[in-house]
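Field notebook, page 255. I keep forgetting to write these up properly, so this time I am using the form the group agreed on. The chain and the ligand, zinc ion, are recorded exactly as supplied. Prediction of the bound pose follows.
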Amino acid sequence: MPFQKLYIYIAGLLNDPIAMISSLHDPELGLIVFKTHPRSTRISIRLAKDGLKVTLPSETFYSKALTLIEEHRAKILDHRKKDTSNKHYLIDESHPLKTHTFTVQVIGADRPQLFFHLVGETLTVEYPRQRDVNSPAVQKTIHNGIIYFLRQDAKKVLPQKTSEWSLKSGLKFKSIKIQASTTRWGSCSSVNNINLSLFLLLLPEHLIDYVIVHELCHTVEHNHSERFWAKVGQILPDYKALRNELKHHPISSWV
Ligand SMILES: [Zn+2]
């Protein structure tokens, strides 16, 4: 029984059974995302940063793809091992994680699969007691699950905050998108579409605000000129300290 249908459990919990049904979580291989592509003639399996990306000609190839993955499991894992960039994450009972909207609590339980449930401001992650919670595979599963919940909250919190700062500052933006960016906290396009990373919810609130104000100021100054920083300074007089503090929170440190 190598596959754990982590996202199906989560999706079921949120009454959104369609949302993630096309992905599976495997404890060793990570997140396996299936996509059908009518024009493809064969099954293709690609290694992704935290799992696999599988393309199928149609859904009828689903079980065939699972068999194929099983056949290549050893090879895929071998490939993974050589990729030393896979970091060793640490979220467990003694290392809780606090986000802007919830605290993650990890506990060992008598269950065969990882299970996530969010009640109030606590996201409880139960993992099978017989497994090593610090193993990269389990940690990765936990991270992916947390990202699922972060995304829900980020979509509520960040547009709300951006609108508030926009009203306060008079800086108007065209649209806002929340993405799982692991390279940039935020960006602002030339037509003032703002993108914010859902990982902002891992920062202290004053830094979330700083990033939002920074991007809003780009709606009038699409550069980092003196005029731009003067604009930021009008809204956040202590922006220099905030900018320095943000440097101590590299976006890549968590993901
Ligand atoms: Zn900027």
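OBSERVATIONS:
- Confidence is low (pLDDT under 50) at residues 1-21, 84-89.
- Residues 214, 218, 224 surround zinc ion (CB under 6 Å).
FOLLOW-UP: compare against the apo run.
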